[in-house]
Amino acid sequence: MKVLHVLSKLEKGGAESRILEMQRNLSPKGVVFDYLLREGGDHFYTKEAAGMGSTFHVIPQPGIRSMFRYIRRVRDLVKGNYDVVHSHLSVFSGFVLLGAKLGGAKIRIAHSRSGPLPSEIKKFPLKRKILLHFYHFLIRHTATHRVSCSSDAAIYLYGEKDVKKGRILYIRNAVDFDRFNVSESKETIKERYGIEPETEVLVSVGNLLPVKNHVYLADVFHAYRKLNPNSVLLIAGEGPERERIEEKLKELGDDHIVLLGRCDTVPALLSIADCFVMTSKYEGVPGAAIEALASGVPCFLSDKITRDIDFGEDVTRYFSIELDPAEVAKIIFDGRNGMRHDKAAFQKILYDSGYEINVACAEMLKIYEGRVK
Predict the structure, then answer these.
(1) Which residues face 343 on adjacent strands?
(2) What residues form DSSP beta bridges with 234?
(3) Sign of the CA dihedral 223, 229, 231, 232?
(4) Cα distance between residue 186 and residue 43, in whole Å
């Protein structure tokens, strides 16, 4: 079976990491993932995906005037080649799946992975609301299956009415628990990062994008160090906000915040974390937080992140990003001792909630094979 996944590129982002997790799981079962990307070139996951038999196609992001040409190109690519097309392009998925429908694909999946909370959508200007309703309409009439990682992400891409009517399928942002069995000692890993054994380690993982709100995170941690001077914040990720964040760190004069760049050893990094912090302005279900929980690390999360992963205050604790950074720092400082560090218990919670890779892949395979309507 061949599945055509449609996304922007195969860099080390949350959606891409989850897709590759599924590919690793389903490839031995004879499922081939091919990719239609907006950008060509050698991306982070290109070599690994190619090693599992992937073929890559590139159709650049179209403008309004070239939209029909884009739809025709998708149609021509799909025709006679793919029965299953899986789009991860958010509101643009309707155009992708229209081309797939014209090309004869029998299974056409729109997958919502992120989006503003419903309370934020209500604040959209009228023009944006009308446009969003148009996207809902187009996806409704081109997708055979509408999938989401969370209820909030589903409301954004498909509309609250269809979510309430139970018309959406949920596939969680699952991870492979085995990846988080780290054999190295914490002392060895800390030494590699130049961290003293007794130093408290806060970790944040995510691409350096405006939506991730790293500048605010830097302010939070700068205030946190006044409460615990023997602490460090490690930020793993790369992106266009790096320069702005570096300027913020110079302004703060804080050398206890370390930008690690693109990180290939996230499980090892999480194994030394005392807590995980995410200050995003919005998310679907952040895969990085799921990875932290799979490592047994409690999470402090922005209140703009879905409550679908609210597993209790000893596991995940939320804070408002409208608060002064010093107030958030105190929430983390006061709350950390009441949080659990229990990998087995956290993994059991994730498994029961559908966040284990074998569980999620079994559900996705049913959709690919047409066993779920």
Answers:
(1) none
(2) 203, 258
(3) positive
(4) 31
Q: Which fold has domain 178-352?
A: Rossmann fold (3.40.50)
Rounded to a whole number, what is the distance in angstroms from the first to the last CA of the chain? 18
Contact 295, 180 (CB under 8 A): yes
Strands 257-261, 84-87: pairing kind: unpaired
| Cβ atoms within 10 Å of 12's Cβ, excluding its own | 19
Protein fold of 2-174+356-368: Rossmann fold (3.40.50)
Q: Which residues contact 12 (CB under 8 A, 6 or more apart)?
A: 44, 45, 207, 238, 262
* Across 55-77, average pLDDT: 95
Question: What is the pTM assigned to this prediction?
Answer: 0.86
Residue with tokens 């284990």: 356
Residue 84 has phi, psi (to 5 degrees) of: -125, 125
Residues of the chain within CATH 3.40.50.2000 domain(s) are 2-174+356-368, 178-352
Check residue 92 and give its pLDDT. 96
* CB proximity list for 184: less than 8 A, separation 6 or greater: 268, 271
CB 53 within 8 A of CB 27: yes
Q: Considering the chain, what percentage of its residues have pLDDT values greater than 90? A: 88
